[in-house]
Design brief:
homodimer; 7-stranded mixed β-sheet; Aspartate Aminotransferase, domain 2
Chain lengths: ~375, ~375
Amino acid sequence: MEIPNRELFGPGPTNVPNSVLQALSQPTIGHLDPEFLKLMDEVGDKTKYSFQTENALTFVLSAPGSIGMETSFVNIVEPGDKVITCINGVFGGRMQAICQKIGASVVTIENEWGTPVDVEQLAETLQQHPDAKIVAFVHAETSTGVRSDAQAIAALARQNDCLVVADCVTSLAGVELRVDDWGLDVAYSGSQKCLSCVPGLSPITFSQKAVDTIKRRKTPVVSWFCDVSLLMSYYESGEKTRAYHHTAPVNSLYAINEALSLVVDETLESRWLRHQDAANHLYSKLEAAGLEMLVVPEHRLAPLTLVRIPDGVDDAAVRGSLLANRNIELGGGLGKFAGEAWRIGLMGQNASVDRADFISDALIAELGKR
Amino acid sequence: MEIPNRELFGPGPTNVPNSVLQALSQPTIGHLDPEFLKLMDEVGDKTKYSFQTENALTFVLSAPGSIGMETSFVNIVEPGDKVITCINGVFGGRMQAICQKIGASVVTIENEWGTPVDVEQLAETLQQHPDAKIVAFVHAETSTGVRSDAQAIAALARQNDCLVVADCVTSLAGVELRVDDWGLDVAYSGSQKCLSCVPGLSPITFSQKAVDTIKRRKTPVVSWFCDVSLLMSYYESGEKTRAYHHTAPVNSLYAINEALSLVVDETLESRWLRHQDAANHLYSKLEAAGLEMLVVPEHRLAPLTLVRIPDGVDDAAVRGSLLANRNIELGGGLGKFAGEAWRIGLMGQNASVDRADFISDALIAELGKR
């Protein structure tokens, strides 16, 4: 089957560097092979760097980002635990759904789509619910292009003795993220966004406090696949050897090892800056053409920009034409924003001023035809 | 990182054909791209062929085989449901563990490791438990190299109005498997065994009776990631379009599309025969050298052979030497068979008389040195 060469400017996957695709297609080896265990050590160390953490239990889950979300909650939440979920888009809503499935007592704070989590409102909610055990929020909402203040949310949650769960799917390696300094207890991401890797993996990290919570559970974790207690002994043995309790997705791990190496080589600080520079260029080009960003400047998420679809413009026709004629994928709106906004991703390899030029020129030209 | 070229004769992954690795490293496209949806249609059709089923809800899960097991049970089992799990190795035991986590009332029948599920014993157990809702068993036990009589087990279960769940991780595309003719309601597999694909995916199929059971659930499915009701509308719409409710592992799906094409081109019947011919050659070579197979001929699983480790031979030293000196991975024993048996896989690309010659010559030479 012939796969077209797409320019990926949607909400992820983004384009994958050739070196990552080459790593992906190296010959498969066994998941118990000593060479594979060495690779796991490397992947673990680079994942720690990317999350800015020293957490021992830091690894890559064998499935897409939504398994990161599920793994976070099924391990630290027990039935009846009170969880405050902050909802300002699709993925906060998914957190709520997963916690409800586990039988948690879920308290939600809801903020307007396109705005960040309201830290004042969270403070009030924490006061009203002193028995809350966990605060969960989305650092970078992929449905709205909003960045919330993870540092402030985490500080507040910890003052109230809560564990903090952060969805970092669209922030890891794209915007500032400091798991240890900010005090995030569980953070997870996806491979296909700012890491510029193939989709299908989910890096995750658990703090010692999260690990202790898991060890003190009174009820078993309801999922076998997501049960990290089946892995913890490997990470606590003092040896560096990492292992899975299932067949590891060996080739995908070659790919993320290379993708993470690119992050280490570039340094996180440069990478965050590169994403911001690209986004700034995109904003100014689109605004100069009369287009409107959906999120106010101070809450914008550099890797993903929401642009209001101008009145009278046919959303599907624009995206269809860009795809058919120019091999460009532009993201459609999700949930409440379907038909109202486009989502333009400048992630990983595509986070550059050149690529921002390319996509804004293409979109402006397409709109000019109409 | 330099990846060695291993000869993979363990319990999987097996060696992956170059065409599959090439497909894997095609450029990534979006999971909502019309070209990707076409690919999903192709993958779905070839998966149906491989399982020998017309089930509409037949697709590839975005994680390794153990997610296939978990997805099977979390969807059709509700707390309190009686499930008969047949245990004759590690993977039957895992079925039991997963069902217990869901809160099922689990009845087990246990058979000696190295022997198949005892159909008579299952008949008695079904008589003792007329309220049983599900019978679950492992068609091809990867820990013991035993093939159970799936057809007889399924017939018996259905006479007793039970749904049938079959673990086909090491049987799909390697030994005879006929989901519709035999009446299996849920069957799942892994990509890295007889399909000769990279590890990390799990093909699965649900019968209409299984789908109806899911629709009649009184309690929600406890997992979000594994909840197939979130996918069923796509498969029931009458349109062929398949979709995921999460980011699909796009590149891995390119790979399994190619691996499944190789199955279709070869035909299942030829592929089953090829696996059997290779295994027969292996048995006769090893037996001629004085080695003993652990399973009696009529219950042997062609893709995976258990060979008793001769008295006084150092298991780890033999496997270590084969790996270090000849790049050969031979499988160690698992669970009760650790240190007692080697597991020799002749799966997918490696299921040939030539490859059987290669691995048996290598093992015999290695033993000759000692």
